[in-house]
Design brief:
elongated
C-alpha cells in the first residue's frame, strides 16, 4: 500500500488508481468509499481515463459522494475525451436518456461511434441500431449491417444476433439463411437468448432450411433457460400445438407463465387465452382479464383486444362498452388489426358510441391496411350497401377480392355472392362455386349452406343431392341455422 501511496504522491496516475481500488475493495486497508473517490479523482486529474469513468459510475450510484447524474455525466465526458471506450458508451447512454445533461440522440450516436472506434463492441451495436431505425442519423440498413458486423467481430452477442437477423430478412445485405444461422449460432453460443430464440424459430418453421422441429425446440429450450421471455413464449407455442414435441397445455401454461412473469406481453396474452378456455388450468374469465390487462400495459395489442372483448361481452368483468372501446383503441394504436375492426363494428352498430358509418369506414380501412381480411370485407360491405359511402359494386368487389386473398371467410363468401347475383360482374355460378368453396373451407357456415344449394340445384356444378346434404350438415355444425 505504501508503494501505491508514494507513487500517487509522485503524481503517478496508476499509483493513485491502484490506491483507490484498494480503498474501494478493502484490500490491505480499511474499506473507505470516500477515500476511494478521492484517489480516483487524483488519478482522473492525472489523465487516467478509466478512473474518470469509475468516478462517473460512483457518482451515479451515490457511493463515496452525493448521488449526482450531472457529475456522472461530466466524468463520463472526461473519460471519453481521454479515449476510454466505456466512458464514451456511458456518455452515449446519458444522452439517450437525457440524464445529467440535455437529451440528444445525435450526440448519443456520436459518443457510441467513438466508443466503437475504440473497440467497444456494444457501442458498435448501438450505432447499428441508430442506422437501422433512423435515430440520430439518416436511416440506412447497409450502414446498420456494417456496425453490427463490427460489434460481432468484437464479440458483442447482440451485434451477432442483429447481423443474423439482417441476413435472415435480407435487410442491408443479400438474404442468406446460411449466414443468418452462422451469426445467430454465434450469438446463441455467447448466451444471447434472442439469438437462440430466432435460431429455434428458423428450424421449427423451416425458414430457408429443412424443417427440424426437434432441433429448433432444443434452441428454444436454451433460450428459455437463459431467461429469454420470448424464447419461453415460443417454446410454449410448440407445446400447445404439439409441434416437434408431445402436446401439453400444462407445459405450455408453465412456459407462458414464466414468460409473463418476465413481463413479456405475448406470454401474458397466451396464458390469458388458455385460462379463458380452461385448457391446462381452471377456466376463469376473471383471471384471464387480469392477464390481458397486464399484457396490454406491456403494449401488447392482442392483450388489449382480448380484454376489450371481455368488457364488450361482460365476461369476468362488468360489461362496459366504454371500457371495450378504450381497449380496442389501444389495440388499434398498437397496430393490432382486430382492435381497429372491432371499433369499426361498434361505430357501424352504434354500440356504446354514436352510430357513424364514416368512423366505421375509417377503422375498417385501418384494419384492412394491417392485412386483416375481415376489415377489407367490411369496407366492401359498406360500398355494396351504400352505407356512409356512394354505393359502388366495383369498389365492393375490389375489397372483397382483397379480403378473400387474405383468406377471409366472409370476404370469399361475399365475393361469391356478387358473382352469384351478377352484381357489378357478369353472373357466374362457376365463380360463385369457387369462392363459396374456399369460404366454406375457411369455416364460414353460410358459405357451406349456399354451396350446398348450388349442388342441390345443379348451378355451375353437377347436381348432387348427397353432396348438398353433406354441405348442409357442415353448415349446421358451423352454427348456420
Amino acid at each position: 500500500m505504501e508503494l501505491f501511496n508514494q507513487a500517487c504522491i509522485g503524481k503517478d496516475a496508476a499509483g493513485c488508481s491502484n490506491l483507490a481500488e484498494a480503498y474501494q475493495k478493502g484490500e490491505g486497508v480499511t474499506k473507505n468509499d470516500v477515500d476511494a473517490v478521492r484517489y480516483f479523482q487524483q488519478a482522473c486529474d492525472l489523465g487516467r481515463a478509466r478512473s474518470c469513468n469509475t468516478l462517473g459510475v460512483l457518482a451515479e450510484q451515490g457511493v463515496g459522494s452525493e448521488k449526482s447524474y450531472e457529475k456522472a455525466a461530466k466524468f463520463f465526458q472526461k473519460a471519453c475525451d481521454l479515449n476510454d471506450g466505456v466512458g464514451c458508451r456511458n456518455l452515449g447512454l446519458y444522452y439517450v436518456k437525457g440524464q445529467g445533461l440535455e437529451k440528444s440522440v445525435e450526440k448519443a450516436i456520436q459518443s457510441f461511434e467513438k466508443a466503437c472506434d475504440l473497440k467497444y463492441g456494444e457501442a458498435c451495436y448501438q450505432v447499428g441500431l441508430g442506422y437501422q431505425n433512423g435515430e440520430g442519423v439518416t436511416k440506412s440498413a447497409e450502414k446498420a449491417v456494417q456496425f453490427f458486423q463490427k460489434a460481432c467481430n468484437l464479440k458483442d452477442s447482440s451485434g451477432c444476433f442483429a447481423l443474423g437477423n439482417a441476413f435472415l430478412d435480407g435487410k442491408g445485405v443479400e438474404k442468406s439463411t446460411e449466414q443468418a444461422i452462422k451469426y445467430l449460432g454465434i450469438a446463441c453460443e455467447e448466451k444471447n437468448g434472442f439469438g437462440c430464440t430466432l435460431l429455434g424459430m428458423v428450424y421449427v418453421s423451416g425458414q430457408g432450411v429443412p424443417k427440424d422441429a426437434k432441433k429448433g425446440i432444443s434452441f428454444l429450450k436454451t433460450a428459455c433457460d437463459l431467461n429469454n421471455t420470448f424464447g419461453c413464449y415460443q417454446l410454449g407455442l410448440c407445446y400447445q400445438a404439439g409441434k416437434g414435441i408431445e402436446q401439453s397445455d400444462e407445459k405450455a401454461i408453465t412456459l407462458y407463465r414464466k414468460s409473463c412473469d418476465g413481463n413479456n406481453g405475448d406470454g401474458c396474452t397466451a396464458l390469458g387465452l388458455l385460462t379463458e378456455e380452461g385448457r391446462g388450468t381452471n377456466k376463469s374469465y376473471g383471471k384471464a382479464a387480469e392477464l390481458y390487462k397486464k399484457a396490454c400495459e406491456l403494449k401488447n395489442g392482442f392483450g388489449c383486444l382480448s380484454l376489450g372483448n371481455l368488457y364488450q361481452n361482460g365476461l369476468g368483468v362488468v360489461r362496459s362498452y366504454d371500457s371495450a372501446k378504450s381497449y380496442f383503441e389501444k389495440a388499434c394504436d398498437f397496430k393490432t388489426a382486430g382492435g381497429c375492426n372491432n371499433l369499426g363494428v361498434m361505430f357501424e352498430n352504434g354500440q356504446g358510441v354514436p352510430k357513424s358509418y364514416s368512423d366505421a369506414k375509417d377503422y375498417f380501412e385501418k384494419a384492412c391496411a394491417l392485412k386483416l381480411g375481415l376489415g377489407c370485407s367490411n369496407i366492401g360491405r359498406l360500398y355494396q350497401e351504400g352505407h356512409g359511402v356512394r354505393q359502388s359494386y366495383e369498389k365492393a368487389l375490389d375489397y372483397y377480392e382483397q379480403a378473400c386473398n387474405m383468406s377471409s371467410g366472409p370476404g370469399c363468401f361475399r365475393l361469391g355472392y356478387m358473382y352469384y347475383g351478377g352484381k357489378g360482374v357478369k353472373r357466374s355460378y362457376q365463380q360463385a362455386h369457387e369462392y363459396w368453396e374456399k369460404s366454406c373451407g375457411l369455416k364460414e357456415g353460410v358459405a357451406c349452406y349456399d354451396l350446398g344449394t348450388l349442388y342441390e340445384k345443379g348451378q355451375g356444378v353437377k347436381k348432387s343431392i348427397a353432396t348438398a346434404k353433406e354441405l348442409y350438415g357442415e353448415a349446421c355444425e358451423l352454427g348456420h341455422e
